[in-house]
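Lab notebook, design round three. We kept the backbone fixed and only want residue identities now. Task for the bench partner: fill in a sequence for the structure below.
Input structure tokens:
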């Protein structure tokens, strides 16, 4: 992203929280955190420094991060495209119970990750 390499989309997503106001912290995600869990934990430890409007930016930034993930890996891009026009629902159990990104029992939750994947799928069709 922007000429910098990230090990995974979670690193990029977590780095987005700090790019505007603390680029020094954002760079640590790229150079130091080695796993998705480490990136998340580091982000939570520095939450006081994240972008003040993060809640209004997070879904757009997630979409950017996962677009780069799928655009760079033809194997998973093909899997995503093969879902056709199906609604994509991410189980909240796959998002540590997070009902913002996923959906729990009885369709409770916002499923924002599923919606972002659908938008990414649409944009990848154009490439």
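Proposed sequence:
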């Amino acid at each position: 992203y922007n000429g910098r390499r990230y090990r995974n989309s979670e690193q990029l997503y977590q780095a987005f929280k700090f790019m505007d106001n603390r680029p020094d912290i954002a760079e640590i995600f790229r150079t130091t955190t080695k796993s998705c869990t480490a990136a998340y934990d580091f982000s939570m430890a520095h939450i006081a420094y994240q972008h003040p409007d993060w809640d209004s930016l997070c879904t757009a930034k997630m979409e950017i991060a996962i677009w780069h993930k799928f655009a760079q890996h033809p194997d998973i891009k093909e899997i995503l495209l093969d879902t056709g026009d199906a609604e994509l629902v991410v189980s909240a159990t796959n998002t540590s119970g997070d009902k913002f990104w996923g959906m729990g029992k009885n369709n409770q939750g916002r499923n924002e990750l599923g919606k972002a994947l659908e938008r990414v799928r649409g944009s990848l069709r154009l490439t």
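Keep this in mind before ordering anything: The chain has two domains: 1-52, 54-127.
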